[in-house]
Structures are given as structure tokens and as C-alpha cells.
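Tutorial, part two.
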Amino acid sequence: MQARNETFAAVYGLRVTALTPVHVGSAEGELAPFEYVQGRERIWPVSAHALFRLLREEGLFEDYVRYTVETPGGRAASLDGYLDWKGRPTLREDIVRRCALRAIAKPERMDITGAFRTMTTAAVAGENDLRRVPYIPGSSLKGAVRTAVLYRMLGESEEQRRGIFAEIARAEEMQRRASAEMNNDRRKQLKNKVDETIKSAGKRMDRLARYGADEPNTDGFRGLRFGDALPAYGSKGESAESLTEAAEIAIVSLNPPGRGGWHFSKARVFAEVLPAGTVLNAELEMADYVWKALRSESARGPSGDLREWLRDAEAKTVRLLEEEIAFYREAGLSTIVRRLEALREQKPTLRLGWGTGLLGTTPSALHMNAAERRMVREVGHFQKRQHDTFPQSRKVVVRSGAPADVLGWVKLEIEGERRL
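Running the prediction step on this input gives:
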């Protein structure tokens, strides 16, 4: 698609403040145990190219390759394991000094094992070719704001909401018929119709996102340029030294009906997060043709005023926090309930990255009643869920072996505005 010759009606300066730990990863953001080294208070992702060059200089490259193939002692192979096996403290120091991409703090004593999930990063301006600094992609900000606006639009459109839920009800009925069908071919046909009906409900949401237009590429949000949110601490190496920290993250799920309480439903993972209090800066450019289009839309569409969008986001946040507090009360996790109640007083704007969940990313979900959610649970890949409450799981930050915090909440504020 050929780019427009765009002029801009407004440019907003944005301030993003993390109110809880935030993790926004990338497709390449999982480090294998050979791609990081750790100490008591830090973990350092390393450049493989720089590491191999150092090992060759030390005459250890072949030795290192042998270790990866024949790890002694039955231990899982890792760069830390190799360094412990060699017993050369100065080699670890050299790797940190010459190969580290950045330092990630460890807020409590933790032995990180297995894969480590990192944030999306960018090169540090003016530094050597290794240094990297984490950031929040503009696409994540845009997606969260867009979902909040659609949440408001769907709340004002009873016709659209009824149509979406009617499609889900049809899918549920066909799912029941498929489960009872003895003929394999007929059962397969019914399951295919279930998938088609669910897609039809998705297309209704898609048409709502384009304000009723049937043509592709007519979503007004396509013309908004959210810049990446970069750390406000400056752009030199020191900003990358202590900006992020490691966190242990797990999924908590409600126990089956009748048992009460909660349990960890999957293995815990380690990830890099922006800690609460981190401040980042970004810009939003609004193209002139988008401004005019949004201003001329019907009452069902958004206005061209970013402040109104943020009010939509805050309204969605209030509703989402109600759901989250109710979930953790049902689970009996009073620590998280108190955390969310305190968070509510801070009036967060958006939820980003890990932890956003089905309710945060699906505009229609927060408008569903209990019966409608049960219908959703009965179709698609949600069929195996055991609890009447849906969704029945959440991601949490774990400290000292217990759920201690939630993920992804930020406050987005306008710091400046230029009309062009």
C-alpha cells in the first residue's frame, strides 16, 4: 500500500509511568541459559559474538563447545554452569566487562535457571555496539488505547453487542451438537461451523473497529503514529545499568468448584520487567486526514481528542480493576487484593504486555454477563476450563514463593501538545 503524503494536525508529548512491574517482550526475547551470566545482584545478557571472540582469545572455545555437549555432573548446561565448572572468577568478570549487553537487577536473592525472557530493546545512542536499553513499543501503546476506545464504542452499541453474543450462542449450540454426534464426518462438519461462527463474531468486532466500513484498511487508528516509549533517564549507558529488574512470574488459577482457594497452574518463569516507578517518554503524531475523519464521524466513533481517549481508557480500567479484585478475593489472595485497591487510588490508564489477559485485550469481554462468558468458555480452546468463573487464571509476580504483585499497569499522561 502506497504511503500517503501526510501532514500532521497535532503532536502530543506523552509520559508513561509504570505503576506495577511491566514486561513487554518480543519474538526474539527469550534467552537460553548460554546467553546470560548472573551474579548475586545482577544478571547480564551477553552478546554471543563477543563471548565467542573472548573464549577464542583465552583458548577456551573448543573446551566450551565440549562442555555444551558433555555437561559434567548431570547438570543442565549453561554459561553459569561452565564458569562454575572452570573455577575462574576473572573469566566471569571479563565476560561481564566485554560481552554484557546491559545489567538487570535482581531485587531479591534468586537463582535464575532455564530460559530468561527479556524486554524489547534498542541500541543506546552514542555507546558501543553492544549496549541495549529496554523500551515499550509504540504499537503496544496504540493497541491498548485502541482497545479502550472500542470498549466504549461497544458499550454504546447495543445492536453490535447483541449480534456478537448471538454468534457466540450459535457456536455454543453447534458445539453441543458436535459433542453428541456419533458420525465422525458430521461431527467434523459441525466443529468447522463452530470455527466459522466464532470468526463471524470476530468480523463483527472488526467492522465496529472500522466504524461500520466494509472496506479493508479503513481503521482510523492506522493513521496514528505512536512513537516508542524510551526511558526518561537519559540515553547513555547508566540508564541501562539499573533500569530493569528480574522477576519470577507464575500463573495462578482458581481451584475447581467446591474446593476454594487457588493454585499455581504452570511452571514459573523468569522475566525482565520495568519496575514500578519507571518513567518513559513517547510522542503521538496524528495525521491531518485522520484528525478530520475522526472529527466528522458519528457519535459512535471516537473524537479527534486524545484526552477523550484517555478518559475512555480510565473508564475501562475502573471496570477491569473491579474484575481483578473480585477474582483475587475469590481466590483468597488478600495480598493481591490490597495491592489492587492501592493501585485503584493511583488511577492507572492502561494495561500493557504480560498480564493484560483476555479481559484486558478483548473489548467485548468486559461487557459480558456471567451467562455470556459461560458461552464463550464452552467454545473454542476454552472448553477445558474447570471453574465457573471465566477467565479462571491470572499472571502474577512471585516473591519469596508467594504471589506478591500484578503486571502491566501504567499511567499515560499528556505532557505537551502542538497543533500544526
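The radius of gyration is 25 Å. In part three we will examine how such features are distributed along the chain.
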